[in-house]
Amino acid sequence: MSTIPGTQGYAAEAPDLLERYERMGFAGAHFAVLDLIEPPPLGVLDIGAGTGRDAAWFARRGDRVTAIEPTREMRDGAMALHPEPNIEWIDDCLPDLMSMRERTFDLVWMSAVWMHFDAKERSQMMTTVERLVRPGGALMISLRHGPIPEGRRMFDVGAEETAGLAHQFGFETVSAATFESTYAPGVTWDRLWFQKGLSAINRASKNKSPPDEPPSPSKA
Ligand SMILES: C[S@@+](CC[C@H](N)C(=O)[O-])C[C@H]1O[C@@H](n2cnc3c(N)ncnc32)[C@H](O)[C@@H]1O
């Protein structure tokens, strides 16, 4: 059994999930945040990328994608399904993501991953993630609520507590949406979109002095 926190159950279920997660499609899963995604090309970090459904959507529109997936059975299947050359697949894991230490991204994407971790790990993860988002960049976290699938390690993590933690690390909430799953009865989702240092950036642009006026014509 895997000792990486959060991965419990995924290796055994990979063949089924590689079919099920793909069937949902990117827009079906993420309609609540589609309008918030900046135009390409972005540097995107997809953590817990699963079947690569989301990584491939970004790659196809021209983004440079780094996809982190520690479950070998998911990662191998995802690479076979999505051979886009602008996806870099990496075997690494939260909470530390050691391989990403020196890197920053325009968008850090965490779809259905955050609720696999306990409170202490979530706090560690926010430290990790904060370093990975460039100033002004974005962070998407989705949270699943409802019956826990057998064999998985999952916690009921609230949207408010997640936003509170993100705010402590310099993120601001741009959007928070809650909706019922159209695929799994009894399951609801939160989709949270944060921006790093939004107020600091707005303040800086407001305080910017206007461009120099053109020199006035000399009076003869
Ligand atoms: C519910 S799936 C979500 C997959 C994909 N993001 C999606 O939305 O379809 C959760 C994924 O997170 C991965 N995962 C679990 N623990 C992890 C960890 N410690 N670090 C990174 N990824 C992890 C699992 O292997 C699995 O592929």
Please explain how this structure is put together:
- By secondary structure, this protein is of the alpha/beta class.
- It has a single domain (10-27, 44-201), classed as Vaccinia Virus protein VP39 (Rossmann fold, 3-Layer(aba) Sandwich), CATH 3.40.50.150.
- It is built from seven helices and seven strands.
- Strands 3-2-1-4-5-7-6 form a seven-stranded mixed sheet, with helices on both faces.
- α3 links the parallel β1 and β2 (64-68).
- α1 packs parallel to α4.
- The N and C termini lie far apart (87 Å).
- S-adenosylmethionine binds at residues 4-7, 10, 21, 47-50, 53, 68-71, 74, 93-94, 111-113, 116.
- S-adenosylmethionine (SAM) binds at residues 4-7, 10, 21, 47-50, 53, 68-71, 74, 93-94, 111-113, 116.
Summarize the structure.
By secondary structure, the chain is α/β, with parallel strands linked by helices.
How many DSSP helices?
7
* Largest sheet geometry: 7 strands, mixed
- Rg (C-alpha, Å): 20 Å
- The helix/strand order is HHEHEHEEHEHEEH
Low-confidence stretches: 210-220
Which topology does CATH recognise?
Answer: Rossmann fold
Beta strands, count: 7
Corresponding CATH architecture: 3-Layer(aba) Sandwich
Hey, roughly how much beta strand do the residues contain? Answer: 15-25%
Strands of the biggest beta sheet: in what spatial order? 3-2-1-4-5-7-6
Shape: globular
What's the CATH first level? Alpha Beta
Distinct ligands, ions and cofactors found in the model: S-adenosylmethionine
